[in-house]
Amino acid sequence: xxxxxxxxxDLLLAIESVETIxxxxxxxxxxxxxxxxxxxxxTLCHTAILLNDGNFLIAKDKQFYDGMVNVExxxxxxxxxEFLAKIKDLKKxxxxxxxxxxxxxxxxxxxxxxxxxxxx
Length: 120
Known about the structure:
Blueprint: H1 5-16, E1 24-25, H2 26-32, H3 41-53, E2 57-63, E3 69-76, H4 78-87, H5 90-101, H6 108-118
Antiparallel strand pairs: 1-3, 2-3
Helix pairs in contact: 5-6
Protein backbone atom coordinates (compact mmCIF):
# COMPACT_ATOMS: atom_id res chain seq x y z
CA UNK A 1 0.00 0.00 0.00
CA UNK A 2 1.32 3.45 -0.92
CA UNK A 3 1.96 6.17 1.63
CA UNK A 4 -0.44 9.07 1.12
CA UNK A 5 1.54 12.17 2.08
CA UNK A 6 -1.55 14.37 2.34
CA UNK A 7 -3.13 11.83 4.67
CA UNK A 8 -0.06 12.01 6.94
CA UNK A 9 -0.50 15.76 7.37
CA ASP A 10 -4.30 15.67 7.65
CA LEU A 11 -4.25 12.85 10.20
CA LEU A 12 -1.67 14.56 12.42
CA LEU A 13 -3.58 17.85 12.26
CA ALA A 14 -6.86 16.10 13.11
CA ILE A 15 -5.30 14.23 16.05
CA GLU A 16 -3.74 17.44 17.33
CA SER A 17 -7.20 19.05 17.35
CA VAL A 18 -8.58 16.44 19.78
CA GLU A 19 -8.90 17.75 23.31
CA THR A 20 -8.98 14.42 25.10
CA ILE A 21 -6.18 13.00 27.22
CA UNK A 22 -7.48 9.48 26.66
CA UNK A 23 -6.90 7.16 23.75
CA UNK A 24 -9.53 6.86 21.04
CA UNK A 25 -10.36 4.51 18.19
CA UNK A 26 -9.63 5.61 14.65
CA UNK A 27 -12.86 4.26 13.13
CA UNK A 28 -15.34 6.63 14.84
CA UNK A 29 -12.75 9.44 14.63
CA UNK A 30 -12.63 8.92 10.84
CA UNK A 31 -16.40 9.41 10.66
CA UNK A 32 -16.36 12.51 12.89
CA UNK A 33 -13.52 14.39 11.20
CA UNK A 34 -14.68 15.89 7.91
CA UNK A 35 -11.09 16.43 6.71
CA UNK A 36 -10.42 12.68 7.04
CA UNK A 37 -13.51 11.48 5.21
CA UNK A 38 -11.79 11.86 1.83
CA UNK A 39 -9.53 8.94 2.79
CA UNK A 40 -10.53 5.33 3.04
CA UNK A 41 -10.49 3.82 6.50
CA UNK A 42 -7.81 1.39 5.27
CA THR A 43 -5.60 4.30 4.17
CA LEU A 44 -6.00 5.98 7.56
CA CYS A 45 -5.11 2.78 9.42
CA HIS A 46 -2.05 2.28 7.22
CA THR A 47 -0.97 5.90 7.76
CA ALA A 48 -1.46 5.72 11.54
CA ILE A 49 0.61 2.54 11.79
CA LEU A 50 3.40 4.06 9.67
CA LEU A 51 3.36 7.18 11.87
CA ASN A 52 3.60 4.88 14.88
CA ASP A 53 6.48 2.93 13.32
CA GLY A 54 8.30 6.20 12.65
CA ASN A 55 7.80 7.37 16.26
CA PHE A 56 5.60 10.29 15.21
CA LEU A 57 2.55 8.82 16.94
CA ILE A 58 1.75 6.28 19.64
CA ALA A 59 -0.89 3.95 18.22
CA LYS A 60 -1.78 0.28 18.37
CA ASP A 61 -3.49 -1.78 15.72
CA LYS A 62 -6.10 -4.25 16.90
CA GLN A 63 -7.19 -7.23 14.82
CA PHE A 64 -10.55 -8.75 15.60
CA TYR A 65 -11.68 -12.35 15.09
CA ASP A 66 -13.80 -11.40 12.08
CA GLY A 67 -10.72 -9.95 10.32
CA MET A 68 -11.61 -6.33 10.98
CA VAL A 69 -8.82 -4.02 12.08
CA ASN A 70 -8.96 -0.90 14.21
CA VAL A 71 -6.25 1.44 15.35
CA GLU A 72 -6.24 2.95 18.81
CA UNK A 73 -4.58 6.37 18.90
CA UNK A 74 -2.88 7.33 22.14
CA UNK A 75 -0.96 10.52 21.38
CA UNK A 76 1.41 12.41 19.13
CA UNK A 77 5.02 12.00 20.24
CA UNK A 78 7.46 14.90 20.74
CA UNK A 79 9.06 13.94 17.39
CA UNK A 80 5.57 14.01 15.85
CA UNK A 81 4.88 17.49 17.24
CA GLU A 82 8.21 18.73 15.91
CA PHE A 83 7.40 17.29 12.47
CA LEU A 84 3.87 18.71 12.59
CA ALA A 85 5.23 22.17 13.40
CA LYS A 86 7.29 22.00 10.21
CA ILE A 87 4.44 20.83 7.95
CA LYS A 88 1.52 22.76 9.46
CA ASP A 89 1.95 25.83 7.25
CA LEU A 90 0.31 25.03 3.89
CA LYS A 91 2.84 27.05 1.87
CA LYS A 92 5.77 25.20 3.45
CA UNK A 93 3.96 21.88 3.05
CA UNK A 94 3.60 22.52 -0.69
CA UNK A 95 7.34 23.29 -0.88
CA UNK A 96 8.09 20.01 0.89
CA UNK A 97 5.84 18.05 -1.48
CA UNK A 98 7.34 19.79 -4.52
CA UNK A 99 10.84 18.78 -3.48
CA UNK A 100 9.65 15.27 -2.61
CA UNK A 101 7.93 14.83 -5.99
CA UNK A 102 11.29 15.25 -7.72
CA UNK A 103 12.49 12.16 -5.86
CA UNK A 104 9.54 9.96 -6.85
CA UNK A 105 8.02 7.54 -4.32
CA UNK A 106 9.42 8.42 -0.94
CA UNK A 107 9.03 7.22 2.61
CA UNK A 108 7.93 9.05 5.73
CA UNK A 109 11.52 9.48 7.03
CA UNK A 110 12.50 11.14 3.72
CA UNK A 111 9.51 13.51 3.91
CA UNK A 112 10.52 14.35 7.48
CA UNK A 113 14.11 15.02 6.39
CA UNK A 114 12.93 17.31 3.59
CA UNK A 115 10.74 19.16 6.11
CA UNK A 116 13.71 19.57 8.47
CA UNK A 117 15.86 20.85 5.55
CA UNK A 118 13.27 23.34 4.26
CA UNK A 119 12.01 24.64 7.60
CA UNK A 120 15.04 25.45 9.73
